[in-house]
Amino acid sequence: MAEREVRVGARSGFHARPAAVFVRAAADSGHRGTLAGAERTADGRSVLAVLGLAAGPGERLRLTVTGDDEERTLERLARLIEADSD
């Protein structure tokens, strides 16, 4: 298991577009990934769960990835969250 704290980079928060890009990448990776906010944890393969975190700009999330080559996947998914995609 690999974990990392990340900050939401999008100026509008982790809204539908960046969440969909993240979920697609998480699903394509074949790894189990979760995002945890202050009050909730979301399955990284579910757009509705990720949107349910309602993560605003600059908010900290805990990203966890489990599976083979998890460090590389963790890095790739973290970059998607931290990117200013607006």
UniProtKB/TrEMBL annotation:
GO terms for cellular component: cytoplasm. It is found in: Cytoplasm. Keywords: Cytoplasm, Phosphotransferase system. InterPro entries: HPr, HPr-like, HPr-like_sf, PTS_HPr_Ser_P_site. CDD domains: PTS-HPr_like. The keyword DNA-binding does not apply. Residues 1-86 form the HPr domain. It comes from the Bacteria. One of its GO terms (biological process) is phosphoenolpyruvate-dependent sugar phosphotransferase system. PROSITE patterns: PTS_HPR_DOM, PTS_HPR_SER. The keyword Protein transport does not apply. Its main location: cytoplasm. This is Phosphocarrier protein HPr. It comes from Streptomyces finlayi.
